[in-house]
Write a structure and sequence with these properties.
heterodimer; A: 226 residues; mainly alpha; flat; B: 236 residues; 79% helix; 0% strand; elongated
Chain lengths: 226, 236
Amino acid sequence: MAEGYIFHWLPVLEAMPRLLGGVATALQVAALSVVGATIIAFLGALAARSARRSLRVTAMIYLEAMRNSPSLVKMYFLYFGLGSFGVFLPPFVAATAALALQNGAYMMEIVRGAIAAVPSGQRDAALSLGLSPRHTFFKVTFPQAMRNALPPLGNNWVEIVKDTSLTSALSVAEVYFVFQSVMALDSRVYELLIVLAAIYLILTAAVGAGVQLLERRFGRAYRVTR
Amino acid sequence: MTDPLHVIALRLLIGLTASLELAALVLLLGTAGGVVLATISNFGGRLGRAFLFTILYLARGIPLLVWIFAIFFVLPHVGLRLSAFTTAAVALTLFASVTIAEIFRGGILAVPRSQTEAGLALGLSPLRSFILIVLPQALRVVLPGMISQFVFLVKASALISLLGVSEMMHVGREIIERTLQGFEVMALIWIFYTMVCLPLGMFGRWLERRLAVGGQGVTRPKSVGGPQIAEPSLRG
């Protein structure tokens, strides 16, 4: 740290309401992205396991189109690119949709792998007991797959929370964007950086703790009871 | 005023070389840093592991963009005035060292303990048997992870555009602001990133399958229990 730098926390304290407003926006972006990404992930995973070749190929093309470029590209594409066709999305919508599209692809791979990891004997057993294919999937395969999928899905949710910082590129007023604008006025950069880092650490730790609770819920059937 | 497509493509490709240059440089420096960190966590006892765990926690809990911003601000403030490109390289290298250390730690764990013991029995010092015997074997296991790390870095280099370093995204945004050709520019950028990352990703997965099957006594660590190898954070 540079010599002679004196910490002043009062300006940061005064900026706290704005920063917390940014946190609220970031959480909105994250929550909506997670919902969108989850829907994409499950539809994609079903398509990737479909008997129909056209669906499988579509899912594969989607996956590769998403995971081989940064989410910033999709953000700009939705925001600037669609403008060429007269479609002008608000920054919040473009940013959230881009995060959902990008993470939907990552999560689709997780879900697909988790379903594939359930031993086929489970499915055979359920079918031979007379369960319909639908029941077999939702009552037997899916709960076990979720147990496999939860830890990596949880990692992904944490990543989405961090990725909300990217939406500042479209001037979405989330916490990193607010941080930058406060900093431009106050120049209490070290204090603000520490607060910003703490905010993100708290957010990601909270999401991580939530995931652990879910893991315990889905792992309940496997716990050894004495 | 609009630019012809080939002119846009050419400018973007020049920007892409900057992204690739940055990613390659960071991969190289980050590997050096990562090996050092992995060695520290291997020999540093409880303190070394706690150190690695702490920086890993910080690296995973705080967005990369915030890290990069911090480096961009702090370096000049302590009197290190470097070019924007070098600053970006420093920022990404610090981050990459941590994830690469994690990849190497997994690779080192995958080398059977008997290899170290054999080295010691032949009279090598612990450090020498680590460097001469364990590390080269860990390298095999580590290779696929390093390729996805490179892909991650190519994608992460896009973040640098937000701090004004001229790479593909930055060049693209500048063209959009001048000509409003949003669709052409972003479609080309999307295609260019995919052209670089898709083959690399496929190669990495192929390599992983090959090494997983034919490893000479080298098995990948099971992901049950202990921390996962850096996979989840390798995104862009």
